[in-house]
């Protein structure tokens, strides 16, 4: 086959790659999300996400935060772990596991507070204890809460957690 004929063939039969989420995951923008069905420590939530090729969710803007809150309401989860910690520098949260800088934040009033010097992991709190505001809070990483995983589209983005 000559190169001209091959080029014509390629033009007539364009190949489109459509990336779909795994079963049980919800597509939003360039990512898929999965609400963990059980309560886990932050560490075990991250492990569960990694088993499925993802990480605990990072939240890059208000729109993504709103989307995750809508999932929390849909699945009736008041509190979910996100993928950030401040282990290295108290009060400065980064997205794990790569230590990516946090450019968007949505902490509640007075948070993060590192109560009793034991709160290094990030979650969204929409419980009645926080007046159903769905804001970010630091908590003890060993507390058991629901978690949300995020898997990036490996065609248009990278796995960022």
Short description:
With about 160 residues, the protein is of the alpha+beta class. It is built from 3 helices and 9 strands, in the order αββαβαββββββ.
Furnish the topology, listing elements before pairings.
Blueprint: H1 3-12, E1 26-28, E2 31-35, H2 42-51, E3 55-56, H3 62-74, E4 79-85, E5 94-95, E6 100-101, E7 121-125, E8 135-139, E9 146-152
Parallel strand pairs: 4-9
Antiparallel strand pairs: 1-2, 2-9, 3-9, 4-5, 4-7, 5-6, 7-8
Question: Could you please describe the fold and organization of this structure?
Answer:
The protein is an alpha+beta fold. The protein has one domain (3-152): Mannose-Binding Protein A, Chain A. Helices cover 20% and strands 24% of the residues. The protein is built from three helices and nine strands; from the N terminus they run H-E-E-H-E-H-E-E-E-E-E-E. The chain has helices at 3-12, 42-51, 62-74, and strands at residues 26-28, 31-35, 55-56, 79-85, 94-95, 100-101, 121-125, 135-139, 146-152. Strands 1, 2, 3, 4, 5, 6, 7, 8 and 9 form a nine-stranded mixed beta sheet that branches. A hairpin with an 8-residue loop joins strand 4 (79-85) and strand 5 (94-95). The protein is globular. Mean pLDDT is 87; it is low at 5-11 and 155-161.
CATH superfamily: Mannose-Binding Protein A, subunit A
Q: In the CATH hierarchy, what is the architecture at level 2?
A: Roll
What is the count of β-strands? 9
For the largest beta-sheet, the strand count, sense and barrel status come to:
9 strands, mixed
Overall shape: it is: globular
Q: Assign the structural class, choosing from mainly alpha, mainly beta, alpha/beta, alpha+beta, or little secondary structure.
A: alpha+beta
Q: Ranges with pLDDT <50 over ≥5 residues?
A: 5-11, 155-161
Q: How many structural domains can be distinguished in the coordinates?
A: 1
The ordered string of helix (H) and strand (E) elements is HEEHEHEEEEEE
What is the percent of helical residues? Answer: 10-25%
Q: What is the CATH fold-level name?
A: Mannose-Binding Protein A, Chain A
